[in-house]
Amino acid sequence: MAKSIVKELQPRDVEILKGLYDFRALSTEQIMVYYHISKWYTYKKLSALRNSGYIITTPIKGYNPNQCRQGNYHRITETGIACLRKQGYSIERRAYDLRVRIRHLPFLFMTNEILMTLRQSNWEVQDSRDAKKQHNLNRGVNIQGIVKNSSDKEFVLYSFLENTSIKNVEKIASEIAMHKFRDYLFICRGGGSFQSIINRFKDSDEVVKSQSFKVFPRGLGKDYLTAFEGSEKKFNSYLEKVLKPKLFFKTSFKSRKVFKGLNQVVSHNGEEKYLVNLLDSDLVKIYNIKRYRKEDFGMDGRKVLVVTEPNLKAIHQNLLESVHHVDFIEVTQGEIKAAHNNLKMEE
DNA sequence: TACCCCACGCGGGATACACT
DNA sequence: AGTGTATCCCGCGTGGGGTA
Question: Please, which domain of life does this record's source organism belong to (predicted)?
Fold first, then answer.
């Protein structure tokens, strides 16, 4: 049978080519999910694009360590780029500039997955190259991208696979010490790297100098960031909705002293407490809670009510073990995901 | 022609078992 | 125990059949 080629370029074909140009490499699955194409038609579409010379396909190796067939990934060719140019896109890079080193591929896949997921909800994303270019950063820095939510807050993104070397973490620490950003987002694929990031940065100078320093396991990160866009306001209104009447937010309250990071008072089971949402495992928040000392609590009288996730609770408790005036409430990842779907339905 | 779906083939790690 | 061989299993993706 003759090989199928692209007869008429569809809008979606162009989008796929644009995606490959932006993200440099995408797996079959990523294309399938991101462009909402049925499984088998994705294969068909991709093979037509391939046969027409727009893309080049290579098997993935080393991404899923315990699986032999890990699927293919695709990159755009010079022909594909010419095609984009014809469609009116301003194109600066050549196919040669978009090639990916094999060792780098797993990192790229993971980061792309995050960037694409965020771009689908209300985030603006910049990949590492764009981010470095715009902020005049050395091309060797490990920044994986910069993401901006709907309230224009910008986070610097770092992502990690299962394990990460001490050397790598230290390199990132020195980058953070050096540059001027204040908000950070760390996304970790495995518990190993999650724990190493937490251990390295808890109570560190880097955290003290930051406004936020959020550390997520990959799945929770994707669900949380798409559901609430990293906005405490959106999260708070969700929380109030699901927990009423047990919990509601106080708009006016008196304090003899203002404690940094403790600016949200709630009434929980009839008791006034400071609410801190730790679903993002923000190390700045943890630092602030720890500075609310026993004497402060004695004077103020409000406990801290921490929102945690069942799988992270032990870690959070451990981080806060020196603080005794803390209560926990749990929100599961599943509930976050469901909240997101519900919000989508309402739109 | 664009799109969707199913059956099956394929590759190779994992596992089980036999043999030395 | 260590090595060789057969089989299973899993998930990817092609070929072909189908619909609007």
Answer: Bacteria
E-only strand ranges, chain A: 26-27, 55-59, 72-76, 124-127, 145-148, 154-160, 183-188, 212-217, 247-249, 265-268, 271-277, 303-308, 326-330
Domain boundaries, chain A: 1-100, 102-228, 231-346
Percent of chain A with pLDDT over 90: 46
A90 touches strand B (CB under 7 A): no
Q: What share of chain A has pLDDT > 70, as a percent? A: 96
A252 C-beta less than 7 Å away from strand B:
no
Nearest nucleotide to the CA of A57, by C1', is C13
Protein residues in reach of strand C (CB < 7 A):
A 1, 28-29, 40, 43-44, 46-47, 59, 67-72
* A30 CA to C19 C1' distance (Å): 27
Q: What is the DSSP code string of A189-253?
A: SSHHHHHHHHHHHTT-HHHHT-SEEEEEEHHHHHHHHHHHTT-HHHHHHHHHHHHTTTEEE-S--
Distance between CA A28 and CA A72 in Å, rounded?
6
A217 to A20, A25, A95, A253: CA distances (angstroms)? 26, 23, 33, 35
What is the reported pLDDT for A8? 76
Could you tell me the fold of the domain covering A1-100? Arc Repressor Mutant, subunit A (1.10.10)
Q: Which residues of A215-243 are buried (b: 16+ CB within 10 A; e: fewer)?
A: bbbbebbbbbbbbbbbebebbbebbeeee
Question: Whose C1' is closest to the CA of A65: which nucleotide?
Answer: B13
Whole-number distance in Å between A5 CA and B8 C1': 24
Q: What is the pTM of this model?
A: 0.87
pLDDT band at A10 (very low <50, low <70, confident <90, very high): confident
The continuous run of DSSP H or E covering A313 comes out as helix A313-319
Determine which helix (DSSP H) or strand (DSSP E) holds A163, and give its type and residue range.
none
